């Protein structure tokens, strides 16, 4: 079973002695990096941006290297500091205060990052939304969080059901348009008039910073709530796991609508004052290789799906580029196939370091460190300061090499502090002092963790987390669909694809046009990545006596597996 292990190379890594650090490290040791140690207060916007802008030796350093088709721009720490001050003034002018929820719904752009830090400087809680969300997804999130303001682009405005969102007071529009409503604020006009000095809102460590909505197996998406104190873990993992050094050029490919794109696309690099590459636009292997080469990227954090697509694009393509600056590669979001690690060794002459964490955990927890041996197929070991184990259903620890539920001792700095509006959901994550992840895994005798799958029905498609319930709910809104059950079907490239089983309402006849219409319906109302790639019409959908869709049975059908205990099946 055990693949060949890949030893660490000699190197000047920030964390060189894992065992010793693990034995001695305490999170309090990291307080000294932040103003909190002296003043008792923090703001992540100060620590990530303003601190470097105040320092004459880093003020003019490039913070953001932005490129997208048709736009290239770079901003220094001094510039982001001044621009986000302006934006904070705009928000204040329109009544934004500490604790308000202010959402961002726009593509990656310099304005996104300026707005994000402007929001944080006012003490408000930022809610980034993935730009591909359609109306229903946007509505669910703004409604649940009772968002007060939204920053978006004119193009995306039609997906914001304003009449149905009574708490939404203003919409700030980034882009040229005729302003027809008193509800709209023009980003550029306001920025021009705003002062570039702002009195930052000093926060307590446990004050709210961010809400990321994510999917579970039941119910609507959950608002995972994070606090400013999370920065300590962003900083420490930036040092140990990303191995960031002053002169690095760092690129994280994730969108800030997802947690990787904030914790590691924004905070970790900038807390370290490192130059951060942001690439907009769609993925193509050529485009990504160009980006790595053009900016001389040295540390690269990406996802298995993207890496698998690079593998498919072939080795000849790799050889046409110069990747001599690249020194450290990392991956997150889904299982990293050992074949991909093998390919990485050939293509880049580098190991790819898998990391495991979740929206709820706020930062990396189980990782492959540059100074440690990599065991392909394993997510690695818990970082110092983190206690990880495998528990059974009652929350009791189980011995090595046995599969169970991956659990983390609750209370690490970047752990979510709540599920917005849903305290019982939040509590349901914890048992016996453990945060229970819902991932099945085992650990070996040496403390390496091996991912096995999800224990619930949550789907991971191309590294994006999709709740089957959301898709099922949307499907049955289509006039033709009576019932729906949705599963993840294994797929070599995407990890899983979404497959829907449906029954049709009387009067509807199965046809490829109808199925395509149903697919498009989900795509245009929810999000492209949530639309089922396969739809199969059935006479009935299996349900338990209590009416729960038996997704596990659907999956067994799909995979041709034995169906197991069906005693709770209806009829
Ligand atoms: C789920 C969390 C925060 C990272 C981006 C995804 C899966 C995450 C790995 C990994 C295997 C992984 C898990 C986890 N996952 N990293 N290294 N190996 N699976 O965040 O959307 O909250 O999803 O992604 O199933 O529970 P997310």
Automatic annotation (TrEMBL):
Alphabetized PANTHER family for the sequence: ACETYL-COENZYME A SYNTHETASE (PTHR24095), ACETYL-COENZYME A SYNTHETASE 1 (PTHR24095:SF14)
Family matches, as InterPro entries: AMP-bd_C (IPR025110), AMP-bd_C_sf (IPR045851), AMP-binding_CS (IPR020845), AMP-dep_synth/lig_dom (IPR000873), ANL_N_sf (IPR042099)
EC number(s) reported in the record: 6.2.1.1
PROSITE patterns assigned: AMP_BINDING
Pfam families: AMP-binding, AMP-binding_C
Keyword set includes Acetylation: yes
Gene name for this UniProt entry: acsA
Taxonomic lineage from the root: Bacteria, Bacillati, Bacillota, Bacilli, Bacillales
Single GO biological process annotation from the record: acetyl-CoA biosynthetic process
Domain AMP-dependent synthetase/ligase, chain residue ranges per copy: 57-420
GO molecular function: acetate-CoA ligase activity; ATP binding
CC per GO annotation: cytosol
Class of this enzyme: ligase
Family: Belongs to the ATP-dependent AMP-binding enzyme family.
Record domain AMP-binding enzyme C-terminal: where: 470-548
Protein name as catalogued: acetate--CoA ligase
Keyword entries, A-Z: Acetylation, ATP-binding, Ligase, Nucleotide-binding
């Amino acid at each position: 079973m055990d693949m060949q292990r890949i030893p660490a190379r000699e190197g000047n890594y920030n964390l060189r002695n894992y065992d010793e650090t693990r034995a001695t490290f305490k999170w309090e040791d990291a307080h000294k990096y932040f103003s909190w140690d002296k003043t008792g207060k923090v703001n992540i916007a100060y620590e990530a941006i303003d601190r470097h802008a105040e320092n004459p030796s880093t003020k003019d350093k490039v913070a953001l290297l932005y490129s997208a088709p048709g736009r290239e721009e770079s901003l220094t720490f001094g510039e982001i500091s001044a621009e986000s001050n302006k934006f904070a003034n705009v928000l204040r002018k329109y009544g934004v205060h500490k604790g308000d929820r202010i959402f961002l719904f726009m593509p990656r752009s310099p304005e996104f990052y300026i707005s994000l830090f402007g929001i944080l400087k006012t003490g408000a809680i930022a809610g980034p939304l993935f730009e591909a969300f359609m109306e229903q997804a946007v509505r669910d999130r703004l409604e649940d969080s009772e968002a007060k303001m939204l920053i978006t682009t004119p193009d995306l405005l039609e997906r914001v059901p304003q009449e149905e969102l009574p708490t939404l007071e203003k919409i700030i529009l980034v882009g040229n348009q005729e302003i027809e409503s008193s509800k709209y604020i023009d980003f550029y006009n306001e920025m021009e008039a705003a002062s570039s000095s702002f009195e930052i809102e000093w926060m307590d460590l446990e004050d709210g910073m961010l809400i990321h909505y994510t999917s579970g197996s039941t119910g609507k998406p959950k608002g995972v709530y994070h606090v400013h104190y999370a920065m300590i873990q962003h900083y420490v993992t930036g040092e140990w796991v990303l191995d960031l050094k002053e002169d690095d050029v760092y690129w994280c490919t994730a969108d800030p609508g997802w947690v990787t794109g904030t914790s590691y696309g924004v905070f970790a690099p900038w807390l370290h004052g490192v130059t951060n590459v942001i690439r907009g636009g769609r993925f193509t292997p050529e485009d990504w290789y160009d980006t790595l080469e053009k900016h001389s990227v040295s540390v690269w954090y990406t996802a298995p799906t993207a890496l698998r697509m690079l593998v498919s694009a072939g080795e000849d393509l790799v050889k046409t580029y110069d990747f001599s600056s690249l020194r450290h590669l990392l991956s997150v979001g889904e299982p990293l196939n050992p074949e991909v690690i093998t390919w990485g060794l050939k293509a880049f002459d580098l190991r790819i370091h898998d990391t495991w964490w979740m929206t709820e955990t706020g930062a990396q927890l189980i990782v492959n460190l540059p100074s440690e041996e990599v065991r392909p197929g394993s997510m690695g070991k818990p970082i110092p300061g983190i206690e990880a184990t495998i528990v059974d259903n009652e929350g009791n620890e189980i011995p090595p090499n046995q599969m169970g539920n991956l659990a983390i001792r609750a209370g690490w700095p970047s752990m979510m502090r709540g599920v917005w509006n849903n305290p019982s959901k939040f509590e349901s994550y914890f048992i016996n002092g453990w945060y229970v992840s819902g991932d099945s895994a085992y650990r070996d005798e040496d403390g390496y963790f091996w991912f096995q799958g999800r224990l619930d029905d949550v789907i991971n498609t191309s590294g994006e987390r999709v709740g089957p319930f959301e898709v099922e709910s949307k499907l049955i809104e289509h006039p033709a669909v009576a019932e729906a059950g949705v599963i993840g079907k294994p797929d070599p490239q995407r990890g899983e694809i979404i497959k829907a089983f449906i029954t049709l309402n009387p009067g509807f006849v199965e046809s490829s046009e109808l199925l395509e219409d149903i697919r498009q319906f989900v795509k245009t109302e929810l999000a492209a990545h949530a639309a089922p790639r396969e739809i199969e019409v059935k006479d009935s959908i299996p349900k338990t006596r209590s009416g729960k869709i038996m997704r596990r049975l659907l999956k067994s059908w799909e995979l041709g597996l034995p169906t197991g205990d069906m005693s709770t099946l209806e009829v």
